[in-house]
Specification:
elongated; 4-stranded antiparallel sheet; alpha+beta; about 190 residues; about 15% strand; 6 helices
Length: about 190
């Protein structure tokens, strides 16, 4: 009987397994890392799209209905979110502006790339476009739970005017926290008129 049979020894098989494992394990860690980065990028992209949609939605509303809210006069701003203040908007009888309240609710029900945001993550602040120093100081004096620090930083960058012009336009700042990390935050401002 011939004792020389073709094949691999146990030591050779272990060497192949060890080398293969040494190559595959880093590749798998890289793949898992790439999936996490892709997920964060998808959430950021969705958040950015939701912000643009929010500004567009608020521009579709009749501006004076937002500007004339009592909160704008007493607080100097109005915050909208999924749980707050959409119900204050009137639905005028004319066909052109018949859906202010519905548009507001739709803005906060936006789903982008299967990502949704709750009332703490997605907040919209509307305040006068032109601010006197007194108006700016009033907004910056609110505590951080009322107006988040990042929104205050946006307000702090607004140049003040000596007196507010008679034509009224408003500034809209959309605050959107799309993740748990400190940097997972987008702030976008625009104009509504």
């Amino acid at each position: 009987m011939d004792k020389r049979q073709g094949g691999f020894s146990l030591v050779e098989l272990f060497a192949v397994i060890l080398i293969t494992t040494g190559v595959l394990v880093p590749l798998l860690f890289s793949l898992v890392g790439n999936v996490q980065v892709n997920k964060r990028m998808n959430e950021k992209s969705a958040a950015s799209l939701v912000q643009v949609t929010a500004i567009g939605g608020f521009n579709a509303m009749r501006h004076r209905d937002i500007r004339d809210l009592d909160l704008m006069a007493t607080q100097g701003f109005v915050e909208f979110n999924a749980d707050m203040n959409c119900d204050l908007l009137e639905n005028p009888g004319d066909a052109l502006y018949a859906t202010n309240r519905e548009i507001c609710y739709l803005v906060f029900e936006t789903i982008s790339a299967n990502v949704t945001f709750d009332a703490e993550q997605f907040r919209v602040f509307v305040y006068p476009y032109y601010l006197t120093q007194t108006m700016k100081d009033q907004l910056l004096a609110y505590d951080d739970s009322t107006i988040p620090p990042d929104v205050k930083a946006e307000i702090a960058d607004v140049e003040v005017v000596a007196e507010v012009p008679t034509f009224n336009i408003s500034r809209i700042t959309v605050y959107l926290r799309y993740g748990e990390r400190e940097i997972d935050l987008l702030i976008r401002s625009g104009v509504i008129s």
